[in-house]
């Protein structure tokens, strides 16, 4: 009799825990689906008018890939564009194209973000007098061509500084430059491009994934600090986009073209401040988080397995990427 009572208590407790867990996940997934529906479906129909933030948008790394696509899409939506990159020739050609195609004004600033602190006073001078409503902190570089262990790149001493300057210092310093005037006007939008590579430690992409989680945390903190003052800081976390950085891997249901990625990602402004940027990338993120929940992906076991896996596919990847097809200028 005693045993039966104990057993029925046990089964009651276990079935209650089970039901609560099921209800918790159903509510959580329903909430995520609703948020996703707003950000990626409704946003196709009702888009935020980006001109409310100000007349000018600044885009770093604006001559190819995602940065160029953001610059073009912002111009299409009525903003004047400041393009910042290393190559004067490419800057002139993109600026000409935007002016003739979208009839917006442009300015170009030639700057190399790997150089560190020294470049920002010149950038500040060239931005003076412009009503900057939007900053897109897009510029970024990988530590290695494909995958590599930390010391297995030529001249790691220099490369480490370059990657940190380009991927993290640029985001903080550019934000520092534009924020004061945005605060004075009580409005502004800063878009920071992080990466899905930041969603967990990525062995053989160690410095890249570490700089990208910096971008994610910095964006979320900055948004919390300044949202009450009219500033939105959006963190964009893409999967694979076909650009020079990804050796122009062909566009597919999983891989977005830069133009379509930038269009979808800009649609999400006003709906979310942390986004995969587009529906297909959000679904990939969702599927990954179900198969490998956060606690599992962050576990040392999983990170060790990732390292083994990365090591095993590195030779094939290197072979595939031996002749990078840099199609986009
Ligand atoms: N592609 C992807 O699948 C992917 C996925 C997740 C996140 N991301 C992130 O998205 C951002 C853009 O990536 P992307 O794939 O579009 O790269 P990309 O095609 O290599 O373009 C990089 C842009 O930045 C400029 N640039 C590079 N180094 C620079 C430097 N030191 N100083 C100034 N400008 C520099 C390049 O122009 P110049 O050569 O003329 O300077 C180019 O305009 C990066 O932050 C990247 O981490 C990309």
UniProtKB/TrEMBL annotation:
It comes from the Eukaryota. GO terms for biological process: steroid biosynthetic process. Its main location: endoplasmic reticulum. The keyword NADP applies. SUPFAM superfamilies: NAD(P)-binding Rossmann-fold domains. It is found in: Endoplasmic reticulum. Coiled coil: none annotated. Keywords: Lipid biosynthesis, Lipid metabolism, Membrane, NADP, Oxidoreductase, Steroid biosynthesis, Transmembrane, Transmembrane helix. One of its GO terms (molecular function) is oxidoreductase activity. The chain crosses the membrane at residues 6-27. Signal peptide: none annotated. GO terms for cellular component: endoplasmic reticulum. Belongs to the short-chain dehydrogenases/reductases (SDR) family. This is Very-long-chain 3-oxoacyl-CoA reductase-like.
């Amino acid at each position: 009799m005693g045993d039966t009572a104990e057993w029925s208590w046990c089964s009651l407790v276990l079935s209650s825990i089970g039901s609560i867990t099921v209800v918790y996940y159903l509510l959580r997934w329903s909430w995520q689906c609703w948020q996703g529906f707003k950000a990626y479906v409704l946003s196709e129909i009702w888009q935020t008018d980006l001109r409310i933030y100000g007349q000018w948008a600044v885009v770093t790394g604006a001559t190819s890939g995602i940065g160029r696509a953001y610059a073009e899409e912002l111009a299409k939506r009525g903003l004047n564009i400041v393009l910042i990159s290393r190559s004067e020739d490419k800057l002139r050609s993109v600026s000409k194209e935007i002016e003739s195609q979208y009839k917006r004004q442009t300015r170009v600033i030639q700057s190399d973000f790997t150089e560190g602190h020294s470049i920002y006073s010149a950038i500040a001078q060239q931005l003076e007098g412009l009503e900057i409503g939007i900053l897109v902190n897009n510029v970024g570089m990988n530590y290695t061509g494909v995958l590599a262990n930390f010391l297995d790149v030529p001249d790691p001493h220099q490369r480490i500084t370059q990657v940190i300057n380009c991927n993290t210092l640029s985001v903080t310093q550019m934000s520092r430059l534009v924020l004061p005037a945005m605060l004075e006007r009580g409005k502004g939008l800063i878009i920071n491009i992080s990466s899905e590579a930041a969603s967990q430690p990525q062995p053989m992409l160690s410095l890249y994934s570490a700089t990208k989680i910096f971008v994610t945390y910095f964006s979320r903190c900055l948004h919390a600090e300044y949202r009450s003052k009219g500033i939105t800081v959006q963190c964009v976390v893409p999967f694979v986009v076909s650009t020079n950085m990804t050796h122009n891997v062909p566009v597919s249901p999983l891989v977005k073209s830069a133009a379509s990625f930038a269009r979808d990602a800009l649609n999400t402004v006003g709906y979310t401040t942390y986004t995969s940027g587009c529906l297909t990338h959000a679904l990939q993120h969702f599927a990954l988080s179900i198969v490998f929940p956060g606690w599992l992906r962050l576990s040392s076991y999983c990170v060790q397995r990732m390292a083994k896996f990365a090591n095993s596919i590195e030779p094939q990847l290197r072979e595939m990427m031996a002749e990078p097809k840099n199609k986009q200028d």
